[in-house]
Amino acid sequence: MGLPACLHVWNSRPVAEPVFLITGASSGIGAATARQGAADGYRVALIARTTERVGPLAEELGGDARALGIACDVTEWEQVENAIETTLSAFGRIDVVFANAGFGATRGFLAESPEHWKAMVLTNVLGVAYTVRASVDALAETEGHLLMTGSVAGHVALPGSVYSATKHAVHSMAESARKELLGRGIRTTLISPGNVDTPFFDNTPTVAMRDEDVARAVMFAVHQPPSVGINEILMRHPQQDT
Description:
The protein is of the alpha/beta class. The protein is 40% helix and 17% strand.
């Protein structure tokens, strides 16, 4: 059986069993992207804090031959490095990395504990930087694609939002990575969604996209030919006013 149409070999070099690594893969945008990537012919490496959180999804997507569930706290460098090495050992290559792990906080400078802020900043910012650092060499080998999850909140300063500040940092990091990686054949894309109906929110916003909507945007960027770099996709529900 040939490759799916969406895995067209634009540069005439065969793409043998491409591999898609996703952090924050246990639910929401990460899980939806894993399902879409697997449907499009990718083997997937699913990264979450515990294997229990991604084990059932890995089984759903084909088990050890097609999908790995890897325990990794992205705020710990050694664990991120090990996740990349485990993926390479099992699958032999990495073609796409989606640095998606992150979480939010209640708005207001008196609303959350300092401990919650610290964990959020480490995950949302340092975790992305660690993922980039650990995966760059593998992506250079395949002339691959690096994606990061930003947010509409990274474009506007929301009242009392430390989360917004973390996403401004990710937006800056994405552009910094793009400039550094120009000569290594790696494309970079920042995915910046507005409200999405995922476990990220305790209460679903009145107007929200679905996680599958964001996954389609991710795959749209990934499936462009090498002559096209989609540097950012900014997306909102049509009725979102932020």
